[in-house]
């Protein structure tokens, strides 16, 4: 019997091996440092974005309000038809009662500029809701005009020369008197979420944009979800493998990378010009967003179907199920968590798109929320775009506040996607 030869024992403690080992460990540490640095940089940039938006937008979440007692005399307002009253005179009389010494017409106009320009309509609506106040007085808390709001929030420096600020010295004196009397308050600005857009920053809100985005995403979901799943199931489970299906797959992957403005041009050419659908309608916006979201849903659904083990299909076929039954009753339900996750992420991306909605006209000035899919509307991204282009100082804070609201919706949708994936995902 021949002797068995064993390999010689390697001396891992020699200088060459130690140096080699040190280089490998140093490379590992460098890779870790690079990864940690990249994560830290990403977190720092995200924190910078959030902090800058918060610092510039937090003022929009509160609103300067002025409490005023409005005399609803029968000379100006009739109890039989309160909507037809002279509410300009009501507002003028209320300010005259607050500052009886102001008699000059120019100063009276400047005094009226302390309150928002829509004060008369707010008083009218309150009287219409409660006609019993006719002949008495009505106390309301009215939004201050934008310059007074900026003064109260410290955006306008009262120590600047009078010709370098939007608020006159007399208006500052009146503001100080109102504040000393306890008539100035700064509550949470619920109007930011309940009011529609306005030319006056102090009463402009996101209600119309939120409702418009909801309708557009609803149309997008109704179209893209069933169509995307049906297309993905056919391509993955039933379509023959040939050059035509390869061509379709390549084009779907390419469409997922097409800039969103191209889908806006397609919607402008087809839905508006060819089909004659109304401009600025959430129906058209949802259809355009559905075209943009479809490739993402198809790709994600196919990946989820591929992740289901072949044994599931084989077991279903073995007990006599058809291919259709195996897919519908076994494969698709197991892939649904991944499908829902991809769909929510696709809708979140659609929620933040601006360019395609601008091309179909969803950037119009709309002063009331849409009542249906065919009513003119805006969306959250286009509303932010409109405010960013406005010259009034008050819209600067509202632009940042709108971005924060949009980010909040995106975070919620992505969080829901993560929850669904972790809650229903199967481990094989």
Please estimate the helix content.
Answer: 55-70%
Main structural class: mainly alpha
Q: In terms of per-residue confidence, which ranges show pLDDT below 50 for 5 or more consecutive residues? A: none
How would you name the CATH homologous superfamily of the largest domain? MetI-like
Tell me the fraction of residues in β-strands, as a range.
Answer: under 5%
* Largest β-sheet summary: 3 strands, antiparallel
Distance between the termini: 50 Å
Shape: elongated
H and E order:
HEHHHEHHEHHHHHHHHHH
Task: State the helix count.
Answer: 16
What's the alpha carbon Rg, rounded to whole Å? 32 Å
Any idea what the CATH architecture of the largest domain is? Orthogonal Bundle
Instruction: State the CATH class of the largest domain.
Output: Mainly Alpha
Biggest β-sheet: strands ordered side by side in the sheet: 2-1-3
How would you describe what is shown here?
- This protein has 428 residues and is mainly alpha-helical.
- It is built from 16 helices and three strands.
- It folds into two domains: 130 residues, no CATH class; 218 residues, MetI-like fold (Orthogonal Bundle).
- 62% of the residues lie in helices and 4% in strands.
- Helix 12 packs antiparallel against helix 13 and helix 15 runs antiparallel to helix 16.
- The mean pLDDT is 88.
What key attributes describe this structure?
mainly alpha; MetI-like fold; 2 domains; 4% strand; single chain; 3-stranded antiparallel β-sheet; 3 strands; 428 residues
Present the secondary structure layout.
Layout: H1 15-57, E1 65-71, H2 87-98, H3 105-112, H4 119-129, E2 137-143, H5 146-152, H6 169-180, E3 184-185, H7 191-194, H8 207-238, H9 243-255, H10 260-274, H11 282-307, H12 310-318, H13 323-351, H14 355-359, H15 380-388, H16 394-424
Antiparallel strand pairs: 1-2, 1-3
Helix pairs in contact: 1-16, 2-4, 8-11, 8-13, 8-15, 10-11, 11-13, 12-13, 13-16, 15-16
């Amino acid at each position: 019997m021949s002797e068995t030869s064993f390999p010689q024992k390697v001396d891992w403690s020699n200088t060459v091996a130690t140096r080699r080992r040190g280089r490998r460990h140093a490379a590992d540490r460098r890779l870790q440092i690079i990864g940690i640095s990249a994560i830290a940089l990403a977190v720092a940039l995200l924190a910078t974005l959030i902090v800058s938006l918060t610092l510039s937008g937090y003022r929009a979440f509160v609103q300067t309000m002025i409490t005023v007692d409005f005399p609803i005399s029968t000379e100006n307002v009739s109890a039989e038809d309160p909507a037809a009253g002279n509410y300009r005179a009501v507002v003028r009389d209320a300010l005259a009662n607050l500052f009886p010494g102001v008699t000059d017409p120019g100063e009276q106009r400047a005094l009226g500029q302390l309150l928002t320009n829509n004060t008369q309509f707010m008083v009218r609506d309150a009287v219409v809701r409660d006609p019993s106040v006719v002949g008495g007085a009505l106390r309301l808390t009215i939004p201050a005009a934008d310059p007074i709001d900026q003064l109260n929030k410290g955006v306008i420096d009262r120590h600047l020369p009078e010709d370098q600020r939007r608020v006159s010295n007399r208006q500052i004196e009146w503001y100080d008197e109102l504040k000393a009397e306890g008539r100035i308050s700064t509550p949470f600005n619920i109007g930011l979420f309940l009011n529609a857009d306005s030319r006056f920053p102090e009463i402009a809100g996101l209600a119309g944009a939120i409702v418009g985005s909801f309708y557009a995403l609803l149309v997008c979901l109704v179209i893209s979800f069933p169509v995307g799943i049906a297309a993905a199931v056919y391509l993955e489970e039933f379509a023959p493998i040939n050059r035509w299906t390869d061509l379709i797959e390549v084009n779907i992957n390419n469409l997922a990378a097409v800039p969103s403005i191209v889908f806006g041009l397609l919607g402008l050419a087809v839905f508006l010009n060819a089909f004659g659908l109304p401009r600025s309608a959430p129906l058209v916006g949802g259809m355009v967003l559905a075209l943009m979201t479809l490739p993402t849903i198809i790709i994600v659904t196919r990946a989820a179907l591929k992740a289901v083990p072949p044994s599931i299909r084989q077991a279903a076929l073995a007990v006599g199920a058809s291919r259709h039954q195996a897919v519908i009753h076994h494969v698709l339900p197991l892939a649904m968590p991944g499908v829902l996750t991809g769909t929510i992420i696709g809708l979140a991306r659609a929620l933040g798109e601006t360019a395609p909605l601008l091309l179909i006209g969803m950037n119009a000035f709309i002063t009331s929320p849409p009542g249906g899919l065919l009513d003119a509307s805006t969306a959250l991204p286009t509303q932010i775009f409109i405010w960013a282009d406005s010259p009034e100082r008050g819209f600067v804070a509202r632009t940042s506040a709108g971005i924060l609201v949009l980010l909040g919706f995106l975070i919620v949708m992505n969080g829901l996607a993560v929850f669904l994936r972790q809650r229903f995902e199967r481990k094989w």
